[in-house]
Design brief:
The complex is a heterodimer. Chain A has 15 helices and 26 strands. By secondary structure, chain A is α/β, with parallel strands linked by helices. Chain A folds into two domains: 146 residues, Glutaconate Coenzyme A-transferase, CATH 3.40.1080; 236 residues, Glutaconate Coenzyme A-transferase, CATH 3.40.1080.10. Helices cover 38% and strands 27% of the residues of chain B. Chain B has a four-stranded mixed beta sheet. In chain B, a hairpin with a 7-residue loop joins strand 1 and strand 2. The radius of gyration of chain B is 12 Å and the shape is globular. Classes of the chains: A alpha/beta, B alpha+beta.
Chain lengths: 470, 88
């Protein structure tokens, strides 16, 4: 048996056969603490390989060195599900010739599996690996919990390189990704900065507006008809969403409702719900905090799932399609309930769908919670700057000033009205905000496409255009 | 009629607030605006600042605003305070 451990990232790149014009992939469980993408791209650049496509499940500000690789044409195309504001601003100002391709957390594995977006070499950042590449995110100083987004890359890339800072004797017990998919293993000093990988604790908001929205959100769930035994739930890691999870737990404990599963990016609040009997299990594609990491390591009811199992529309079935309620955020919502999470109101890229449109499409009740306005910018507009999730998949918008129900859901609207909740037409929320903020002038944008937003099923959903340089 | 005789400031750089600096001017109103919502509300902000200056009888001043998305009522309050602190 020939060993797989090679001396350096550079050696692994050479052995993988990577050539100019190919596609390299990365996953984002180490979030804004990730060292691996930068380490790999530095070596690729040093080897003189260029015109690459970087195919990442998400990109964060720590990946800003990519901008230099773009300038030197080492990287000429980016495919990702999310891009934070620093990189996003540069892309929006026209840093790349070819438009970025945005997919969703379910659309990405689908495109990998169907061959629409193939990968030549996948680089897996592994907090623990043995010498044959059985690897896991659960153990080691850089523990991140689930490795869910890396599964499709490992299973379908032509070559797979595992990079770890915690090489353990064969076999690693409790692996996530098995050796059967792995070609090379590289040990490095550190794959990431623990402070950027997981938050110590994710905190619920103390902002009274956020708490008010959270309490409305829970009342909407209570009166939706879905909150009963078998209930399933996903929420984001934003302050108001976490507050909603906490309030929901109180209701479920009090009324002794036993749900089936909590899904998604998992925080300590979902772990609390599991421990208090609100759910039978957690299905985890990514951990957001230390409590979630500890739980997935120690509690057999806390299951790791792959990105495909989470949200792919082209596998035989996926978890989002069993979801009752999802709570989501928005930078803008328009009067047709289309949601923007890709750009700010000025048109500059600062996010991406992630699992937004996958869960909205799958859940029986897709709820947006957002304040009436944020730093003078009204949330409700006539037309969103970018359609990230189509309005047909959004059921309700909760703000501190009222709740708007998509007219496609008349039964839900009746239920909420009967419960005495402040249900108003969405246009009224727009007017109410503009009364306080004034009517914003629509910012101008250029006519050069800087990004394409591809729906979870592979169609072009919207195009993002360049904005003036600041 | 208020005269600005010294450099003064009001407000903070928190989200939804505005930081206002005022100083004696040479001729007329010299207004500098930096804002996270300049594209959407730049003109509206400038208009409300000039209105407050006029109401307070300030005809000669240098005024600089760093806006983090403040509402009109907040901008008015911060500008008025800066005028009082810098004026005689």
């Amino acid at each position: 048996m020939q060993g797989k451990v090679v001396g350096s990232i550079r050696e692994a790149i050479v052995l993988s056969g990577l050539r100019s014009g190919m596609t390299v992939s990365f996953h984002h469980h180490l979030r804004n603490g990730d060292y691996v993408l930068n380490l790999v791209m530095e070596q690729i650049a040093a080897l003189g390989i260029d015109h690459l496509t970087v195919h990442a499940s998400s990109l964060f500000d720590i990946h800003a060195p990519l901008l230099d690789h773009i300038k030197s044409h080492v990287v000429t195309k980016i495919q990702t599900d999310y891009m934070s504001a620093r990189l996003g601003r540069a892309i929006s100002e026209g840093a790349m010739e070819e438009p970025v391709e945005f997919r969703t957390h379910g659309g990405r594995p689908s495109a990998i599996e169907t061959g629409a977006a193939p990968i030549d070499v996948a680089f897996i950042a592994a907090p623990a690996s043995d010498s044959m590449g059985n690897c896991s995110g659960k153990y080691g100083k850089s523990a991140c919990g689930s490795l869910g987004y890396a599964f499709p890359d490992a299973m379908h890339a032509k070559k797979v390189v595992v990079i770890t800072d915690n090489l353990v004797p064969y076999p690693l017990v409790g692996w996530s990704i098995p050796e059967t998919y792995v070609d090379y293993v590289v040990a490095v000093d550190a794959i990431g900065d623990p402070a950027g990988i997981v938050s110590g604790t994710t905190q619920i908001t103390r902002d009274p507006i956020g708490l008010m929205m959270a309490s409305y959100a829970v009342r909407v769930i209570q009166h939706s008809g879905l909150l009963k035994d078998g209930f399933s739930f996903q929420t984001g890691a934003g302050g108001a969403s976490l507050a909603a999870a906490k309030f929901l737990k109180d209701v479920m404990v009090r009324e002794q409702i036993r749900g089936s599963f909590g899904l998604g990016g998992i925080t300590g609040y979902l772990v609390d719900m599991l421990r208090e009997g609100c759910f039978e299990t957690l299905l985890d594609v990514q951990c957001f905090d230390l409590k979630a990491v500890e739980s997935i390591r120690t509690d057999p009811r806390h299951m790791e799932i792959s990105a495909s199992h989470y949200a792919s529309p082209t596998v035989r079935s996926s978890a989002v399609d069993h979801l009752d309620v999802v709570i989501l955020g928005a930078t803008e919502v328009d009067t047709d309930f289309n949601v923007n999470v890709h750009t700010d109101s000025g048109g500059s890229i600062m996010g991406g769908s992630g699992g937004h449109s996958d869960t909205a499409a799958g859940a029986k009740l897709a709820m947006i919670i957002a304040p009436l306005f944020r730093a003078r910018l009204p949330i409700v507009t006539d037309r969103v700057t970018c359609i990230s999730t189509p309005g047909r998949d959004i059921d309700v918008l909760v703000t501190q000033a009222g709740i708007a129900v998509n007219p496609r859901q008349p039964e839900l609207q009746d239920r909420l009205k009967q419960a005495g909740l402040p249900v108003v037409p969405i246009e009224e929320l727009k007017t109410a905000a503009e009364k306080v903020t004034g009517v914003p002038t629509r910012p101008a944008h250029g006519n050069r496409a800087v990004a394409k937003v591809i729906s979870r099923t592979g169609e072009l959903l919207d195009t993002i255009y360049n904005i003036p340089r600041r | 009629m208020a005269e600005i005789v010294r450099k003064a400031a009001a407000g903070t750089l928190e989200s939804s607030d505005v930081y206002v600096e005022i100083a004696p001017g040479e001729a007329g109103i010299d207004l500098e605006l930096e804002s996270v919502v300049k594209e959407q509300f730049g003109q509206a902000i400038e208009q409300v600042v000039r209105q407050v200056l006029q109401e307070q009888g300030v005809t000669c001043a240098r005024i600089r605003l760093v806006d983090r998305g403040a509402l009109d009522c907040v901008i008015r309050a911060r500008v008025e305070t800066a005028i009082v602190r810098g004026g005689e």
